[in-house]
Description:
By secondary structure, this protein is of the alpha/beta class. Helix content is 37%, strand content 12%. It has two domains: 2-201 and 346-372, Crotonobetainyl-coa:carnitine coa-transferase, domain 1 (Rossmann fold, 3-Layer(aba) Sandwich); 229-319, formyl-coa transferase, domain 3, CATH 3.30.1540.10.
Amino acid sequence: MRVLDLSRLFPGPYCSRILADFGAEVIKIERPGRGDWLRYVPPLASEGGDGLLFRSLNRGKQSLTLNLKSEQGRSVLLQLVETADVLLESFRPGVMERLGLDYDTLARTQAGLVYCSLSGYGLEGPYRARAGHDLNYVGLAGLLNLTGQRDGPPTIPGAPVGDLAGALWAAIGILAALLERERTGQGQRVDGSLLGGALSCLPLAVAGHMGGQPMERGGSHLTGGLVCYQVYETRDGKFVTLAALEAEFWAAFCQAVGRDDLEGEAFTPAVRGQATYEELCELFRGRTRHEWMETLAGVDACCEPVYTVEEALASAPVQALKMLTTEGMLPPVLLSAQESRTAAPAPSLGQHTAAVLADLGYNPAEVDELRKEGVV
């Protein structure tokens, strides 16, 4: 499967990396001279100088530099489209149309093309041309308002939720369209959005809204409203998570800490001044995080440490996933019929330009001429 990736920065390259990780040939098309801005975003690699996030998102891809604002550049892209299964782009709606590279135009060149647009707000609606970033998307979706303490302001999540979910759904849409093409022989357009990705993370909140039981920041069952589903500080200033929602897990926790009297208090509100909540806060402050893990070792109480990223990457459960490589993380799923692969490095800017053009029939002199003219 050949994927032409015109996207840049984070969500689009994350989407195409998923496809590359499962065997697709991804040709990353970048601006001549500079390329994807993420190449220059710190932290930078000690060797080569590329951004480490860029390397992680673009490993295993090829890099072709191409000026899509030039007639010759667009001609080269049209030739590539004839060889491609998928095209991914993340421009604001209308940009590809102005370049003459919209879906209708490219579908006439390659009827089987799956053409995915991954934009901030989707192809329609009043925000279609508006700029945005993940914080805007999670705010507009309602997700940000559910994150944080009950009596505090919304808290920015520790990961770009809309970007990641939007990219994942775009990859799913591409795969679904490819499966449909197997049946019909026809490609189609896939419209993904980062706002939609953020909204897709809220089935519990939407169900609560529809049922007349809206979720609240720090006040609902899964947003910190219960003593049995809570983050507690330990004596050494670290934290543990307690997620003993089911009766058997809560009972196991109460018995392990010698507080059988609390077995009926699992769904007590976690509110300052509430007796059970204050008692549990005091209980957890009585031991270090490590001591709590020793106390609850082997107990099915759904109580685990809150790790830093450094601690998490070195921990036994994360190591057991075998996701970590020097080139970034591998996919979090394994396929039994797929041979294990090591992650190939990300390409240097334009590293594969000559090879890709040679496959299209360009000789070295023609490639050199295109370079002189700023086309590649």
